[in-house]
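Shift notes (night). Ran Single-stranded DNA-binding protein while the centrifuge was going.
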Amino acid sequence: MGTRIPVSINGNLVADPELSYGESGIAHAKLRIAVNQRFQAADGTWRDGIPVFHNVSAFRALAENVAASLKKGDPVTVAGELEFRSYEKDGAQHEARRIVAEVVGPDLRFGTSSYARTPKVNVGTSVAAHGPGQTDPGVANGWGTAPAHPLSAPSVAGVSVKGLQI
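Came back to this:
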């Protein structure tokens, strides 16, 4: 397991989110976000700084909602955990980082948005304690898979999570 650091970024999507489904059926959206600080030059004009690009992964319902709601160029805010991993390729050791998103939303400083709640799904009583579509906490976490621990509360009807009845 790698180091995880809580982060929050504001930036723009440089491409449409890529939605895919793993072997277990879990939705995974990949996002690429450019964060670019603006600064005021001595002459009073605003200039863009050097952009920093972040790879972001969203899972489950968040992934599906991101793919259905956002597109290239949209300003977004992302909160989640920065995840590092190391791997070997062609005999050389490499490091990679990504943000595993817990929350993704449009940045409303630059526009407006409308919200539509996703309809609840009726779930039978045979759903495991960790929720539908969520990985078993005992399963190893690979780079392209959902985190072993769910970052968001499971959406199971009739289950109390953090004091809220779902």
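Residues 125-141, 151-162 have pLDDT under 50 and may be disordered. The first helix runs from residue 60 to 69.
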